[in-house]
Amino acid sequence: MHESESLDNAEFAATVRQWLEENLTGEFAELRGKGGPGSEHEFFEQRLAWDRHLAASGWTCIGWPTEYGGRGATIEQRVIFHEEYAKANAPARVNHLGEELLGPTLIAFGTEEQKQRFLPGIRNVTELWAQGYSEPGAGSDLANVTTTARLEGDKWVINGQKVWTSLAHVAQWAFVVARTEPGSSRHHGLSFLLVPLDQPGVTVRPIQQLTGTSEFNEVFFDDAVTDADLVVGNPGDGWKVAMGLLTFERGVSTLGQQIGFDRELRTITDVAAANGALDDPAVREKIARARIGLRVMRAHAVRTLDDADPGQASVAKLLWANWHRDLGALAMDVEGASSLVGPDHDHAGTPSVITDPEHLELAEWQRLFLFTRADTIYGGSNEIQRNIIAERVLGLPREARP
Protein backbone atom coordinates (compact mmCIF):
# COMPACT_ATOMS: atom_id res chain seq x y z
CA MET A 1 0.00 0.00 0.00
CA HIS A 2 1.33 3.46 -0.90
CA GLU A 3 1.94 5.97 1.90
CA SER A 4 -0.85 8.23 0.59
CA GLU A 5 -3.29 5.33 0.72
CA SER A 6 -2.23 4.55 4.29
CA LEU A 7 -2.89 8.16 5.28
CA ASP A 8 -6.26 8.14 3.55
CA ASN A 9 -7.21 4.92 5.32
CA ALA A 10 -6.08 6.28 8.70
CA GLU A 11 -8.25 9.34 8.16
CA PHE A 12 -11.17 7.14 7.12
CA ALA A 13 -10.76 4.99 10.26
CA ALA A 14 -10.72 8.12 12.44
CA THR A 15 -13.90 9.36 10.74
CA VAL A 16 -15.72 6.06 11.33
CA ARG A 17 -14.51 5.89 14.92
CA GLN A 18 -15.60 9.44 15.68
CA TRP A 19 -19.02 8.98 14.12
CA LEU A 20 -19.67 5.83 16.15
CA GLU A 21 -18.56 7.55 19.36
CA GLU A 22 -20.88 10.47 18.71
CA ASN A 23 -23.88 8.39 17.65
CA LEU A 24 -23.88 5.32 19.91
CA THR A 25 -25.33 7.58 22.57
CA GLY A 26 -28.72 8.57 23.89
CA GLU A 27 -31.42 6.17 22.73
CA PHE A 28 -28.81 4.00 20.98
CA ALA A 29 -26.41 3.66 23.92
CA GLU A 30 -28.17 0.61 25.33
CA LEU A 31 -27.72 -1.24 22.03
CA ARG A 32 -23.99 -1.85 22.43
CA GLY A 33 -23.30 -5.57 22.11
CA LYS A 34 -26.94 -6.44 21.47
CA GLY A 35 -28.42 -8.79 18.90
CA GLY A 36 -25.51 -11.18 18.41
CA PRO A 37 -25.72 -14.94 17.73
CA GLY A 38 -28.36 -16.51 19.94
CA SER A 39 -29.71 -13.07 20.88
CA GLU A 40 -31.16 -11.94 17.55
CA HIS A 41 -34.48 -11.17 19.23
CA GLU A 42 -32.96 -8.48 21.46
CA PHE A 43 -34.02 -4.89 20.76
CA PHE A 44 -35.00 -5.68 17.18
CA GLU A 45 -37.05 -2.53 16.57
CA GLN A 46 -34.38 -0.35 18.16
CA ARG A 47 -31.65 -2.01 16.05
CA LEU A 48 -33.77 -1.46 12.96
CA ALA A 49 -33.95 2.23 13.88
CA TRP A 50 -30.16 2.21 14.35
CA ASP A 51 -29.64 0.71 10.90
CA ARG A 52 -31.84 3.41 9.40
CA HIS A 53 -29.84 6.02 11.31
CA LEU A 54 -26.68 4.57 9.75
CA ALA A 55 -28.32 4.80 6.33
CA ALA A 56 -29.32 8.43 6.82
CA SER A 57 -25.67 9.23 7.55
CA GLY A 58 -24.35 7.28 4.56
CA TRP A 59 -22.91 4.33 6.50
CA THR A 60 -24.81 1.50 4.84
CA CYS A 61 -23.70 -0.23 1.65
CA ILE A 62 -20.41 1.68 1.65
CA GLY A 63 -18.80 -0.73 -0.82
CA TRP A 64 -21.52 -0.25 -3.44
CA PRO A 65 -20.81 1.99 -6.43
CA THR A 66 -21.82 5.62 -5.88
CA GLU A 67 -24.42 5.43 -8.67
CA TYR A 68 -26.37 2.96 -6.55
CA GLY A 69 -26.15 4.94 -3.32
CA GLY A 70 -22.89 3.57 -1.95
CA ARG A 71 -19.62 5.30 -1.13
CA GLY A 72 -17.54 3.31 -3.61
CA ALA A 73 -15.30 2.38 -0.70
CA THR A 74 -12.17 0.34 -1.36
CA ILE A 75 -11.74 -3.13 0.10
CA GLU A 76 -9.36 -1.65 2.70
CA GLN A 77 -11.95 0.95 3.72
CA ARG A 78 -14.68 -1.66 3.98
CA VAL A 79 -12.45 -3.75 6.24
CA ILE A 80 -11.73 -0.66 8.34
CA PHE A 81 -15.44 0.11 8.70
CA HIS A 82 -16.35 -3.41 9.82
CA GLU A 83 -13.45 -3.57 12.24
CA GLU A 84 -14.15 -0.16 13.77
CA TYR A 85 -17.83 -1.08 14.03
CA ALA A 86 -16.94 -4.25 15.90
CA LYS A 87 -14.42 -2.47 18.15
CA ALA A 88 -17.14 -0.03 19.17
CA ASN A 89 -19.28 -3.03 20.19
CA ALA A 90 -22.02 -1.60 18.01
CA PRO A 91 -25.23 -3.67 17.74
CA ALA A 92 -25.69 -6.52 15.28
CA ARG A 93 -27.14 -5.29 12.01
CA VAL A 94 -30.61 -6.38 10.89
CA ASN A 95 -30.00 -5.83 7.17
CA HIS A 96 -26.98 -8.07 6.55
CA LEU A 97 -28.73 -10.32 3.99
CA GLY A 98 -29.83 -7.36 1.90
CA GLU A 99 -26.77 -5.16 2.20
CA GLU A 100 -23.96 -7.71 2.05
CA LEU A 101 -25.54 -10.48 -0.04
CA LEU A 102 -28.45 -9.54 -2.26
CA GLY A 103 -27.36 -5.99 -3.04
CA PRO A 104 -23.95 -6.96 -4.49
CA THR A 105 -25.64 -9.85 -6.32
CA LEU A 106 -28.14 -7.52 -7.99
CA ILE A 107 -25.33 -5.14 -8.92
CA ALA A 108 -23.43 -8.04 -10.51
CA PHE A 109 -26.28 -9.99 -12.15
CA GLY A 110 -29.50 -7.95 -12.02
CA THR A 111 -31.18 -5.84 -14.66
CA GLU A 112 -31.11 -2.07 -14.37
CA GLU A 113 -34.82 -2.13 -13.58
CA GLN A 114 -34.22 -4.57 -10.70
CA LYS A 115 -31.41 -2.42 -9.36
CA GLN A 116 -33.55 0.73 -9.44
CA ARG A 117 -36.45 -1.11 -7.80
CA PHE A 118 -34.66 -2.86 -4.94
CA LEU A 119 -31.32 -1.25 -4.16
CA PRO A 120 -32.75 1.96 -2.61
CA GLY A 121 -34.91 -0.06 -0.18
CA ILE A 122 -31.89 -2.11 0.86
CA ARG A 123 -29.67 0.93 1.27
CA ASN A 124 -32.30 2.84 3.28
CA VAL A 125 -33.28 -0.28 5.29
CA THR A 126 -36.94 0.10 4.38
CA GLU A 127 -37.18 -3.42 2.93
CA LEU A 128 -35.66 -6.44 4.68
CA TRP A 129 -34.70 -9.69 2.96
CA ALA A 130 -34.63 -13.39 3.82
CA GLN A 131 -32.61 -16.12 2.09
CA GLY A 132 -34.64 -18.96 0.54
CA TYR A 133 -31.98 -21.56 -0.18
CA SER A 134 -32.12 -24.61 2.12
CA GLU A 135 -34.90 -27.19 2.04
CA PRO A 136 -35.65 -30.29 4.13
CA GLY A 137 -33.88 -32.38 1.48
CA ALA A 138 -31.43 -29.73 0.29
CA GLY A 139 -29.51 -28.23 3.16
CA SER A 140 -25.84 -27.72 2.50
CA ASP A 141 -26.28 -29.63 -0.78
CA LEU A 142 -28.24 -26.88 -2.48
CA ALA A 143 -28.39 -28.65 -5.85
CA ASN A 144 -31.11 -30.95 -4.45
CA VAL A 145 -33.66 -28.11 -4.50
CA THR A 146 -37.20 -29.34 -5.24
CA THR A 147 -39.18 -26.11 -4.78
CA THR A 148 -40.68 -25.38 -8.20
CA ALA A 149 -41.70 -22.27 -10.08
CA ARG A 150 -43.65 -22.31 -13.32
CA LEU A 151 -44.25 -19.31 -15.54
CA GLU A 152 -47.93 -18.53 -16.06
CA GLY A 153 -48.46 -15.37 -18.08
CA ASP A 154 -46.70 -12.53 -16.29
CA LYS A 155 -46.22 -14.44 -13.02
CA TRP A 156 -44.02 -17.17 -11.58
CA VAL A 157 -46.14 -19.58 -9.50
CA ILE A 158 -44.07 -21.10 -6.70
CA ASN A 159 -44.66 -24.30 -4.71
CA GLY A 160 -42.44 -25.96 -2.14
CA GLN A 161 -40.81 -25.52 1.24
CA LYS A 162 -37.72 -23.73 2.48
CA VAL A 163 -36.15 -24.25 5.89
CA TRP A 164 -33.63 -22.47 8.16
CA THR A 165 -34.82 -19.25 6.50
CA SER A 166 -33.18 -16.53 8.58
CA LEU A 167 -35.30 -13.46 9.35
CA ALA A 168 -38.28 -14.55 7.22
CA HIS A 169 -40.59 -13.58 10.11
CA VAL A 170 -39.54 -9.92 9.84
CA ALA A 171 -38.63 -9.64 6.14
CA GLN A 172 -40.80 -8.28 3.34
CA TRP A 173 -38.97 -10.19 0.59
CA ALA A 174 -36.96 -13.36 0.03
CA PHE A 175 -34.51 -14.35 -2.69
CA VAL A 176 -35.49 -17.90 -3.58
CA VAL A 177 -33.73 -20.61 -5.56
CA ALA A 178 -36.40 -22.68 -7.35
CA ARG A 179 -36.48 -25.33 -10.05
CA THR A 180 -38.02 -23.79 -13.16
CA GLU A 181 -37.27 -26.51 -15.72
CA PRO A 182 -39.39 -29.67 -15.19
CA GLY A 183 -37.34 -32.84 -15.23
CA SER A 184 -34.06 -31.07 -14.54
CA SER A 185 -31.74 -32.25 -11.77
CA ARG A 186 -28.88 -31.05 -9.62
CA HIS A 187 -27.68 -27.53 -10.50
CA HIS A 188 -29.37 -27.49 -13.92
CA GLY A 189 -32.75 -25.81 -14.41
CA LEU A 190 -32.67 -23.58 -11.32
CA SER A 191 -33.64 -19.91 -11.22
CA PHE A 192 -33.02 -17.12 -8.72
CA LEU A 193 -36.32 -15.37 -7.93
CA LEU A 194 -37.23 -12.31 -5.85
CA VAL A 195 -40.43 -13.16 -3.98
CA PRO A 196 -42.69 -11.00 -1.77
CA LEU A 197 -43.46 -12.73 1.54
CA ASP A 198 -46.58 -10.77 2.46
CA GLN A 199 -49.07 -12.68 0.31
CA PRO A 200 -51.69 -15.42 0.83
CA GLY A 201 -49.53 -18.18 -0.69
CA VAL A 202 -46.72 -17.84 1.87
CA THR A 203 -46.70 -19.33 5.38
CA VAL A 204 -43.83 -18.60 7.78
CA ARG A 205 -43.33 -20.78 10.86
CA PRO A 206 -40.56 -20.00 13.37
CA ILE A 207 -38.15 -22.80 14.32
CA GLN A 208 -37.11 -22.76 17.96
CA GLN A 209 -33.38 -23.03 18.58
CA LEU A 210 -31.49 -24.51 21.54
CA THR A 211 -31.17 -20.99 22.89
CA GLY A 212 -34.96 -20.65 23.05
CA THR A 213 -35.02 -18.01 20.32
CA SER A 214 -36.33 -18.27 16.76
CA GLU A 215 -34.03 -16.45 14.38
CA PHE A 216 -34.85 -18.75 11.48
CA ASN A 217 -38.00 -20.29 10.07
CA GLU A 218 -39.57 -22.77 7.71
CA VAL A 219 -41.41 -21.16 4.81
CA PHE A 220 -44.13 -22.82 2.74
CA PHE A 221 -45.04 -21.66 -0.77
CA ASP A 222 -48.49 -22.74 -1.95
CA ASP A 223 -49.10 -21.17 -5.35
CA ALA A 224 -47.26 -18.07 -4.20
CA VAL A 225 -46.48 -15.67 -7.02
CA THR A 226 -43.93 -13.13 -8.12
CA ASP A 227 -43.63 -11.06 -11.27
CA ALA A 228 -42.11 -12.71 -14.33
CA ASP A 229 -39.35 -10.10 -14.54
CA LEU A 230 -38.18 -10.73 -10.97
CA VAL A 231 -35.76 -13.47 -11.97
CA VAL A 232 -32.12 -12.47 -11.49
CA GLY A 233 -30.04 -13.54 -14.47
CA ASN A 234 -31.67 -15.70 -17.09
CA PRO A 235 -34.12 -18.48 -16.15
CA GLY A 236 -32.02 -21.58 -15.59
CA ASP A 237 -28.99 -19.56 -14.42
CA GLY A 238 -29.98 -19.75 -10.77
CA TRP A 239 -27.03 -21.89 -9.74
CA LYS A 240 -24.51 -19.38 -11.09
CA VAL A 241 -26.27 -16.49 -9.38
CA ALA A 242 -26.68 -18.38 -6.09
CA MET A 243 -22.99 -19.31 -6.03
CA GLY A 244 -22.06 -15.73 -6.88
CA LEU A 245 -24.04 -14.56 -3.87
CA LEU A 246 -22.18 -16.99 -1.60
CA THR A 247 -18.85 -15.43 -2.55
CA PHE A 248 -20.15 -12.11 -1.22
CA GLU A 249 -21.33 -13.83 1.98
CA ARG A 250 -17.77 -14.57 3.07
CA GLY A 251 -16.33 -11.17 2.29
CA VAL A 252 -14.93 -8.28 4.30
CA SER A 253 -17.58 -8.41 7.03
CA THR A 254 -15.92 -11.56 8.39
CA LEU A 255 -13.00 -9.43 9.58
CA GLY A 256 -15.40 -7.47 11.74
CA GLN A 257 -16.79 -10.78 12.99
CA GLN A 258 -13.29 -11.71 14.10
CA ILE A 259 -13.09 -8.59 16.29
CA GLY A 260 -16.12 -9.95 18.11
CA PHE A 261 -14.41 -13.33 18.40
CA ASP A 262 -11.36 -11.63 19.89
CA ARG A 263 -13.54 -9.83 22.44
CA GLU A 264 -15.14 -13.12 23.46
CA LEU A 265 -11.76 -14.81 23.85
CA ARG A 266 -10.34 -11.94 25.90
CA THR A 267 -13.34 -12.02 28.22
CA ILE A 268 -13.08 -15.79 28.66
CA THR A 269 -9.37 -15.37 29.46
CA ASP A 270 -10.20 -12.74 32.08
CA VAL A 271 -12.77 -15.06 33.66
CA ALA A 272 -10.19 -17.87 33.74
CA ALA A 273 -7.70 -15.60 35.47
CA ALA A 274 -10.29 -14.48 38.00
CA ASN A 275 -11.68 -17.92 38.95
CA GLY A 276 -8.39 -19.82 38.90
CA ALA A 277 -9.13 -21.87 35.78
CA LEU A 278 -6.01 -20.38 34.20
CA ASP A 279 -3.91 -22.38 36.68
CA ASP A 280 -4.95 -25.53 34.82
CA PRO A 281 -2.32 -26.30 32.13
CA ALA A 282 -4.98 -27.83 29.87
CA VAL A 283 -7.05 -24.63 29.99
CA ARG A 284 -3.97 -22.47 29.34
CA GLU A 285 -3.11 -24.60 26.31
CA LYS A 286 -6.65 -24.28 24.90
CA ILE A 287 -6.56 -20.50 25.34
CA ALA A 288 -3.18 -20.31 23.62
CA ARG A 289 -4.41 -22.46 20.74
CA ALA A 290 -7.49 -20.26 20.42
CA ARG A 291 -5.31 -17.15 20.22
CA ILE A 292 -3.13 -18.73 17.52
CA GLY A 293 -6.22 -19.93 15.62
CA LEU A 294 -7.65 -16.42 15.61
CA ARG A 295 -4.44 -15.04 14.10
CA VAL A 296 -4.45 -17.74 11.42
CA MET A 297 -8.08 -16.93 10.63
CA ARG A 298 -7.32 -13.25 10.17
CA ALA A 299 -4.25 -13.92 8.05
CA HIS A 300 -6.26 -16.15 5.72
CA ALA A 301 -9.10 -13.62 5.47
CA VAL A 302 -6.74 -10.75 4.60
CA ARG A 303 -4.79 -12.85 2.08
CA THR A 304 -7.92 -13.95 0.20
CA LEU A 305 -10.07 -10.80 0.32
CA ASP A 306 -10.16 -10.38 -3.46
CA ASP A 307 -10.06 -14.11 -4.27
CA ALA A 308 -13.38 -15.37 -5.66
CA ASP A 309 -12.25 -19.01 -5.59
CA PRO A 310 -15.03 -20.98 -3.80
CA GLY A 311 -12.33 -23.17 -2.29
CA GLN A 312 -10.94 -20.22 -0.35
CA ALA A 313 -14.43 -19.39 0.94
CA SER A 314 -14.79 -23.00 2.10
CA VAL A 315 -11.45 -22.85 3.91
CA ALA A 316 -12.55 -19.66 5.65
CA LYS A 317 -15.85 -21.22 6.72
CA LEU A 318 -14.05 -24.27 8.16
CA LEU A 319 -11.61 -22.05 10.03
CA TRP A 320 -14.07 -19.77 11.79
CA ALA A 321 -16.88 -22.27 12.34
CA ASN A 322 -14.72 -24.86 14.07
CA TRP A 323 -12.80 -22.20 16.00
CA HIS A 324 -15.98 -20.60 17.33
CA ARG A 325 -17.54 -23.95 18.22
CA ASP A 326 -14.42 -24.82 20.22
CA LEU A 327 -14.54 -21.42 21.91
CA GLY A 328 -18.02 -22.22 23.21
CA ALA A 329 -16.69 -25.46 24.70
CA LEU A 330 -13.70 -23.59 26.16
CA ALA A 331 -16.05 -21.15 27.88
CA MET A 332 -17.76 -24.07 29.59
CA ASP A 333 -14.40 -25.48 30.68
CA VAL A 334 -13.44 -22.14 32.18
CA GLU A 335 -16.75 -21.71 34.00
CA GLY A 336 -16.56 -25.25 35.37
CA ALA A 337 -19.50 -26.70 37.29
CA SER A 338 -21.29 -23.32 37.42
CA SER A 339 -21.73 -23.53 33.65
CA LEU A 340 -24.38 -26.20 34.24
CA VAL A 341 -26.61 -23.93 36.34
CA GLY A 342 -28.24 -20.86 34.87
CA PRO A 343 -30.59 -18.16 36.11
CA ASP A 344 -33.55 -20.58 35.82
CA HIS A 345 -33.26 -22.36 39.18
CA ASP A 346 -35.04 -21.98 42.48
CA HIS A 347 -33.52 -20.94 45.79
CA ALA A 348 -32.80 -24.56 46.67
CA GLY A 349 -30.65 -24.89 43.57
CA THR A 350 -33.14 -27.13 41.77
CA PRO A 351 -33.53 -26.33 38.07
CA SER A 352 -36.96 -24.88 37.42
CA VAL A 353 -39.29 -26.36 34.82
CA ILE A 354 -39.23 -24.45 31.55
CA THR A 355 -42.83 -23.86 30.59
CA ASP A 356 -42.12 -21.17 28.01
CA PRO A 357 -38.94 -21.93 26.03
CA GLU A 358 -39.13 -18.57 24.27
CA HIS A 359 -38.35 -16.95 27.63
CA LEU A 360 -35.58 -19.38 28.56
CA GLU A 361 -32.91 -17.51 30.51
CA LEU A 362 -29.31 -18.39 29.74
CA ALA A 363 -26.04 -17.04 31.02
CA GLU A 364 -23.82 -15.40 28.39
CA TRP A 365 -21.49 -18.37 28.01
CA GLN A 366 -24.30 -20.92 28.01
CA ARG A 367 -25.86 -19.08 25.08
CA LEU A 368 -22.50 -19.01 23.30
CA PHE A 369 -21.98 -22.73 23.83
CA LEU A 370 -25.44 -23.72 22.63
CA PHE A 371 -25.48 -21.43 19.61
CA THR A 372 -22.02 -22.39 18.38
CA ARG A 373 -23.12 -26.02 18.09
CA ALA A 374 -24.71 -24.86 14.84
CA ASP A 375 -21.71 -22.95 13.47
CA THR A 376 -20.33 -26.01 11.67
CA ILE A 377 -23.73 -26.74 10.09
CA TYR A 378 -25.40 -23.56 8.84
CA GLY A 379 -24.05 -21.75 5.80
CA GLY A 380 -22.68 -25.02 4.47
CA SER A 381 -21.73 -27.87 6.79
CA ASN A 382 -18.15 -28.98 7.41
CA GLU A 383 -18.69 -32.02 5.22
CA ILE A 384 -19.86 -29.96 2.27
CA GLN A 385 -16.99 -27.48 2.65
CA ARG A 386 -14.46 -30.31 2.64
CA ASN A 387 -16.07 -31.81 -0.46
CA ILE A 388 -15.78 -28.47 -2.25
CA ILE A 389 -12.10 -28.20 -1.35
CA ALA A 390 -11.43 -31.80 -2.33
CA GLU A 391 -13.25 -31.70 -5.66
CA ARG A 392 -12.80 -28.12 -6.90
CA VAL A 393 -9.41 -27.26 -5.46
CA LEU A 394 -7.51 -30.53 -5.12
CA GLY A 395 -9.15 -32.19 -8.14
CA LEU A 396 -10.05 -35.37 -6.28
CA PRO A 397 -12.77 -37.68 -7.66
CA ARG A 398 -16.31 -36.49 -6.99
CA GLU A 399 -18.20 -38.09 -4.16
CA ALA A 400 -20.60 -40.83 -5.32
CA ARG A 401 -24.16 -39.50 -5.45
CA PRO A 402 -27.40 -41.50 -5.35
Please render the helix and strand layout as text:
Elements: H1 3-23, H2 44-56, H3 75-87, H4 96-109, H5 112-123, E1 129-132, E2 148-152, E3 155-162, E4 173-179, E5 190-196, E6 202-207, E7 216-227, E8 231-232, H6 238-249, H7 253-275, H8 281-303, H9 310-335, H10 364-372, H11 382-393
Parallel strand pairs: 1-4
Antiparallel strand pairs: 2-3, 3-7, 4-5, 5-8, 6-7
Helix pairs in contact: 1-3, 3-7, 4-5, 4-6, 7-8, 7-9, 8-9, 9-10, 9-11
List keywords for this structure.
alpha+beta; Butyryl-CoA Dehydrogenase, subunit A, domain 2; Butyryl-Coa Dehydrogenase, subunit A, domain 1; 402 residues; Butyryl-CoA Dehydrogenase, subunit A, domain 3; 11 helices; 4-stranded mixed beta sheet
As for the CATH topology of the largest domain, it is Butyryl-CoA Dehydrogenase, subunit A, domain 3
| Portion in beta strands | 5-15%
List segments where confidence is low: pLDDT < 50 over at least 5 consecutive residues: 1-5, 345-358
* Spatial order of the strands forming the largest sheet: 1-4-5-8
Number of domains: 3
Secondary-structure element order, as H and E? HHHHHEEEEEEEEHHHHHH
List how many beta strands DSSP finds. Answer: 8
Q: Number of DSSP helices?
A: 11
Shape annotation? globular
Question: Between the first and last Cα atoms, what is the distance in angstroms?
Answer: 50 Å
Structural class: alpha+beta
